[in-house]
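Quick start: read one record
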Amino acid sequence: MELPPEIWIYVLRHLSPSDRFSVRASCKYFKHLVDQGSLWRDWSVVLGFQRRAYNSRFWATLRRRGVTAVVMRGTRAKDWKQLALSLPSLTTVVMDQSSHAGLDCIKDFTNLKRLAIRSGSTNFLLDASTVHHPQQLTQLSMCDVKFPTAGIDRFISALSKFTNLTSLVCHQMGIFDETIWVIHSILKCLPKLKHLSLSVVQRLGVLSNMSGPKPGHLGGAGAPVLSSLELIHCVDHSLPEDVMRLMPGLKTLAVFYRCSSQETEGRPSPDRHPLNTWLSDLPQLSTLVIAKGPLVKKYVTSIPATVTNLTLCAAGLSSEDIAALAVHVPNLLHLHIDPWPSHLGVHTAQIPHLFPKLKSLKLRHEHVPERDFLNLHLLQDLGYLEILDSSPQLSKLAGKLQALTEYRLQVTTSPRRRDAFSCHCACQVY
């Protein structure tokens, strides 16, 4: 029986890439179907140029699939030239190993909207001449690259040319001004910025003597627009307590601490952590991510009730901590909870009663009794469960849980496909 192409496309959409390639190799008909652009929308291709140049049929296949995003691991100028010539419609370029030759070729991508530059061994200067249309660039990500100067002025001057940026990632760039100054300066020069991710830098002995920017005074620029802030490599007191008043409209806050409370055990710890003030100053917060850092009990009472999406990767979670979370975030819809290297264990049984509105859940099943794990079927709205660890018995256990939910629940041990543009600094949590 012959099926119309639309049905085959629907079936192929549910296959993994490796399975699609197997089907593609079976005959010309399926080769044509598998190369349909609708099957590869939002996918990226990784190019290495290690053994030899790619042939014309390879490039033709990528064009048929409508590929618009590339992760480039080659550093030679001729490889970059071939890429720009063969895929002129690219809108996303990830330079996985930055080089001067590669940077000189970025301007050849006339449709570029998203640019990521990573892992550079030499200094580079990014300015308006780097890209063909500076005003067209909306997302810029730089990680582990060296800027020619450690000061903020030249860096901000370069950024100010990209006035339509909505997302900016700056990790491990050797910019050694205080993070509060960096945030303030970026918000002043990029009025359309919605997402900002920074590595936190603190020079000891400076904060107590500096007269930094006054929270809430940005001259009307930036503050109302920024909705998402991500801080990487944070340490206690690396930013002023009132820093969030610069960004009162934040809806997403992610803080990745260098150390957990267990790793800093024995050091003096104040009763009130700066995170309390940060959270108290964010009345519109809906998504909160905390990795490592202080004990949950030190800030749980400050989490706004508006939070519906919570990621908590903190060791030593107690049943009291989980119960306190339920009190302060009663409308939680999405929960990612990982107390590794400790575990939830029997506390898992409390989740359906404490967070009855959950639609998605991520956790580990190690040390969780089977009965408590299967009780997750009591979450009537739960549609997605991601298990963060694995075992030989997991498949059978997941099948039992799905049967109890009459197979409305999707259970997976593989994280959702990550955007290749995303920086690796935080991807292990997301």
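The radius of gyration is 24 Å.
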